[in-house]
Design the sequence.
């Protein structure tokens, strides 16, 4: 969305009563007058800082003027607004639309939490199980030369794991020893 469209969308919000005070509008106009490249000429800046006109009229005229000038001018207005009135800048309707998350986008913070919600004990249990299975596969592989003591030690390790796993491991070891 271009800055001109965003400014058009935010115009009512910005010009409503007591959103911007006179000092903040003057700071924004001065910044737009002094920034490189110069957004407002000296005559334009004096026109938008004229204390004889109401604040609402000056601000409305400024926003319309910036929209006529183009996207770069509107972008510089948003930058000046962010510098001089950050809370108001964060409350803009167009900013709220930009902050709305895309339903197809992955929220990395939430995804990180979802992956790490089980804690270190779960990680250690999974790692131990994977290491144990790798050792078991290595020791019971007929292509590798393993000392007989390692098979005996491995035969007793499933006792810690549980009855069902122990039975499966022992059957596998017995089958391997017959071959």
Sequence:
């Amino acid at each position: 969305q271009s800055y001109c469209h965003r400014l058009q969308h935010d115009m009512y919000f910005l010009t409503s009563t007591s959103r911007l005070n006179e000092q903040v509008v003057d700071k924004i106009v001065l910044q737009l007058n002094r920034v490189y490249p110069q957004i407002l000429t000296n005559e334009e800046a004096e026109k938008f800082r004229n204390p004889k006109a109401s604040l609402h009229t000056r601000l409305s005229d400024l926003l319309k003027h910036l929209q006529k000038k183009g996207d770069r001018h509107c972008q510089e207005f948003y930058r000046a607004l962010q510098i001089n009135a950050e809370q108001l800048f964060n409350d803009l309707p167009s900013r709220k639309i930009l902050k709305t998350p895309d339903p197809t986008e992955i929220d990395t913070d939430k995804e990180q939490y979802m992956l790490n919600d089980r804690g270190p004990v779960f990680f250690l249990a999974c790692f131990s199980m994977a290491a144990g299975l790798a050792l078991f596969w290595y020791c019971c592989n007929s292509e590798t030369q393993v000392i007989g003591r390692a098979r005996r030690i491995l035969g007793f390790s499933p006792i810690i794991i549980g009855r069902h796993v122990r039975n499966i491991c022992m059957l596998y070891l017995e089958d391997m020893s017959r071959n």
